[in-house]
Sequence to fold (97 residues):
Amino acid sequence: MSVTGTQWCYASCTEHLQFIIRSTGAEYALKVIDKSKCRGKEHMIESEVSILRRIHHPNIVQLVAEYDTHSELYLVMELIKVSMITSALCSCFWLNI
Fold:
C-alpha cells in the first residue's frame, strides 16, 4: 500500500496526521499516541478508544482501525476537513440552531 501524508497538528502526547492511500485516493486522519508521554493517563486512552469503537453517528468522527505497538497507539480515523466543519457551523448559525 502506497501512502502519502502530512502532519497537521501536535498536542502533548498525540500527533495528528492526514494521509492518502494512493491506489484508492481515500483520505484518513491518523492519531498517533505516544505511550511514554501518556503515563498515568492510560485509562483515559482506553476509554476514548472503547467509546469510538462503539459509536456510529454521522456527527462523530468514525474510528476506522487501530494499531497498538509497544511505544505507540495508532488510530486511523475518518478525515474531517476544515471546509466541512466550516460549512456545518455556517449552516447551524444560518438556521439559528
